[in-house]
Amino acid sequence: MRTTVSLLSWIVVQALVMNAGCCGTRSPGPEDEAVIVDIVTAVAPPQGGFIEVSLRDHEPVRLDEARILTTAHLSFLQTSRDYKTAVYLEIDPATRVIDEVLAPYDSPVLSVNEQADRAEVLLVYSAAYHFLLRSHPDYARMISDLRSSVEHGNNLLITESRDEHFIIDVRDPLPERN
How far is CA 33 from CA 57, 93, 100, in A? Predict the structure, then answer.
């Protein structure tokens, strides 16, 4: 029963965060210092208006308690910590304050259909269409990675904007750690 309730909580939080309004507006490359894809290891109690979030492979980041999405982001980050799933974070590099939290798909790619202005991408673990715009600055690398996944069946971490299903980040899954 507890697993069912926890899984239901995960789904509800996913829906809240994915439908909260804003969208992942950045077009990051894999070395963008304002983008972190990692696993949450700890969430500290609030202190001085911020909540510190520890990450497995990066320096800690902070949630600003005054921001409107903090409650949804906090719940999502805690659930992600509990399930040890990757999170996509957009931060202000100077302050390490989180601006955006998104959930990457961890999935092989089923198909890639390139069109004039975009590529339509189908994932094994998603019923939605996902779109990689040709105008994305990292289009060539991402389309190559997506095609390789179709050919070889390997999983990728694929992050998209909240509302439009525009792919904003593609990278290999995070390595396993004990």
Answer: 13, 7, 14
CA-closest candidate to residue 58, choices 44, 42, 45: 42
Q: Say if residues 162 and 24 touch (Cβ distance below 8 Å).
A: yes
Mean model confidence pLDDT for the chain? 86
Q: Could you tell me which of 45, 82, 79 has the C-alpha nearest to residue 65?
A: 45
What is residue 2's predicted lDDT score, i.e. its pLDDT?
Answer: 42
Question: Considering its fold, how many domains does the chain have in total?
Answer: 2
Rounded to 10°, the helix 70-83/2-18 angle is 140
pLDDT at 156 (0 to 100): 97
* Structural contact between residues 91 and 97, judged by C-beta atoms closer than 8 angstroms: yes
Closest CA to 83 of 106, 112, 115, 111: 106
Residue pair 173/157 in contact by the 8 Å Cβ criterion: yes
Task: Break the chain down into helix, strand, coil percent, rounded to 5.
Answer: 25, 35, 40
- pLDDT digit string, tens, across residues 93-120: 999 999 999 999 999 999 999 999 999 9
Of 55, 85, 102, which marks where a domain is finished? Answer: 102
Q: The domain containing residue 14 runs over which residues?
A: 2-102
HSE, CB side, 13 Å, CA atoms: give it for residue 158.
28
